[in-house]
Amino acid sequence: MEATGKRFLYIDNLRLLVIMLVIIMHLSGTYSGFGSWYVTGGKPVGLISTVIFGFYQSFTQGYFMGLLFLLSGFFIPGA
Fold first, then answer.
1. Alpha-carbon gap, residue 52 to 30, rounded angstroms
2. What is the reported pTM?
3. Which is the most buried residue in 9, 32, 74, 78, by most CB within 10 A?
4. pLDDT tens-digit series, residues 8-32
5. Residue 44 near residue 32 (C-beta atoms within 8 A)
6. How confident is the model at residue 65 (pLDDT cuts 50, 70, 90)?
7. Which SS3 state, helix, strand or coil, does residue 36 take?
8. Alpha helices in 4-46 (DSSP H)
9. Cα–Cα distance between 38 and 16 in angstroms, integer?
10. Which residues cross the membrane (predicted)?
């Protein structure tokens, strides 16, 4: 593959969106109370917050890392 120096703006925007989803996923994992964390404290999360966090995390984890790897692998030249 030749390096043309041409960037695909829509791919850059999609990558940015997926990277933001990764950051939000880590934040929601921290503040939702799901998973086993060494430090816990503060008020317990209510039912509505638990449902929202659970829906977001289960929906987003189904596709976002695979999409990020697909986008990064698209530009790797054949081995």
1. 14
2. 0.72
3. 32
4. 888 889 989 998 998 988 888 887 8
5. no
6. confident
7. coil
8. 9-32
9. 31
10. 16-39, 51-76
